[in-house]
Amino acid sequence: MADFDAVLTTDIPSTFAISPEISAKVLRTDAGGSPVALEVTFAPGAVWPGEDIHSDSAEAVYVQSGVLRTGVPGTGVNKVDDRCPAGSLVCAEQGTSHQPYSDTGCTLLLFYPDKWKGSAPAV
Predict the structure, then answer these.
(1) What is residue 1's predicted lDDT score, i.e. its pLDDT?
(2) What is the pLDDT of residues 65-74, one digit of tens each?
(3) DSSP 8-state code for residue 23
(4) What pLDDT score was predicted for residue 2?
(5) Distance separating the N- and C-terminal Cα atoms of the chain
(6) From CA 107, how far away is CA 116, in angstroms rounded?
(7) Distance (Å, rounded) from C-alpha 58 to C-alpha 96?
(8) b vs e for 20-53, b when ≥16 Cβ sit within 10 Å of the residue's Cβ?
(9) What residues are paired with 23 via a beta bridge?
(10) Of 25, 41, 75, 113, which residue is 20 to 30 A from 48 by alpha carbon distance?
(11) pTM for the complete prediction?
């Protein structure tokens, strides 16, 4: 079935550094090799290097562990601050931007849904 596949993320070996405190593993890519799904790990105190601009796709982030701070006041799960604890789903529309960070460290599953069609596992 061409439109359905599965892969163990542990079988995907390559990780890269976004910054000294943030690493990523590409789980899925589009036909051109651009990431479509990633596992991203923030060390405690890590801040995204610069503004994260969603220019070519919306972004959906599932917080697997720890607490992600979106960097945008009022966008957290309590609608007061920007905290998104484990179990949170954070969605950002295309054209938005922010500078995420984590005081405690966190692990995220990050998806770009507008780039999904025709993508494949990064194994």
Answers:
(1) 39
(2) 999 999 999 9
(3) E
(4) 55
(5) 18
(6) 21
(7) 8
(8) ebbbbbbbbbbeeeebbbbbbbbeeebbbeeebe
(9) 17, 41
(10) 113
(11) 0.89
**CA distances for 123 relative to 9, 13, 22, 98, 102, angstroms:** 9, 8, 21, 30, 29
Domains in the chain: ranges and CATH = 15-121 (2.60.120.10)
Q: CA 21 to CA 56: how far, in whole Å?
A: 25
Contact yes or no for 76/29 (Cβ under 8 A): no
Contact 48, 17 (CB under 8 A): no
Lookup: tokens for 35 = 């990431």
The parts of the chain modelled with pLDDT lower than 70 are 1-2
Residue 98: strand, helix, or coil: strand
For residues 72 and 49, what is the distance between their CA atoms, to the nearest angstrom? Answer: 15
What are the residues facing 19 on neighbouring strands?
22
Element (H, E) at 83: strand 83-85
Altogether, the residues listed in the chain come to a count of 123
For residue 72 the two structure tokens come to 């945008």
Which stretches within 1-123 are classed as H helix? none
For position 106, what pLDDT does the model report? 98
